[in-house]
Amino acid sequence: MISRALKGLLVSSVLLLGCGSSSSGGGNGAAFVGTWTYISGSTLTPSSCMVLGTTIPPLDLTGDTVTITAGASASEIDFVEGTACTIKFTVSGTTATATSDQSCTLPVSGISAVLNVTSWTLTLSGDTLMAGFSGSAPIGGTSCTASGTGTLAKNTPDAATTDAKTSD
User: Fold this and answer.
1) Is pLDDT at 36 greater than 60 in this prediction?
2) Pairing state between β 59-60 and 43-47
3) Which domain holds residue 133?
4) CA 62, CA 25: separation in Å to the nearest integer?
5) What is the largest CA-CA distance in the chain?
6) Residue 113 lies in a domain
7) Is residue 41 within 8 Å of 62, Cβ to Cβ?
8) Considering only CA atoms, which of 68, 70, 61 is closest in space to residue 36?
9) What is the pTM of this model?
């Protein structure tokens, strides 16, 4: 007979597998597509990270712009920041989750640093995205990790440009 705890674990595992599937619950990747800008309070915080004997300070993401494009299916999106950072996400409802084992190269104090993604989630609410991410950064040492949170606002077309196009 299977113990109650084992049954719970099996049910949880099946549910988690279902959440990651593009065929269950359907994705709405289109709602995430567009250009987004990090607003005040968005940071990436290194922990136990040093380069050339200098501790890497938290990175303020405020004002950084990212582009989200459609992925290979309706439930996939690509998060693009700069020229060397594209992370693939799977969408389920209003949440997009990156698969681990992806990497992203970002400029840190004038040096290109690779961030190996452990987890990264985007949660959509209207024209706002909440981001939570964590990973490791080998350039800062073997125990260097980084985590952060951020809020992104969707960029909208300039109203004057939109008005001019509709009056033609």
Assistant:
1) yes
2) antiparallel
3) 34-155
4) 33
5) 73
6) yes
7) yes
8) 68
9) 0.74
CA distance 148 to 134: 6
| Dist. CA 123–CA 94, nearest whole Å | 6
* First-to-last C-alpha distance (Å) of the chain: 73
Average pLDDT of span 64-70: 95
Range in 32-36, 46-50, 67-71, 104-108 with the lowest mean pLDDT: 104-108
What does the alpha-carbon distance between residue 13 and residue 99 come to, in Å, rounded to a whole number?
A: 16
Domain harbouring 52, CATH code: 2.40.160
Is position 8 within any domain?
no
Residue with token string 């501790």: 55
pLDDT digits (tens, 9 = 90+) for 102-157: 998 877 767 788 889 999 999 999 999 999 999 998 877 778 999 999 999 999 87
In a domain, 27, yes or no: no
On the question of pLDDT at 20 being above 50, the answer is no
Residue 56: predicted pLDDT = 83
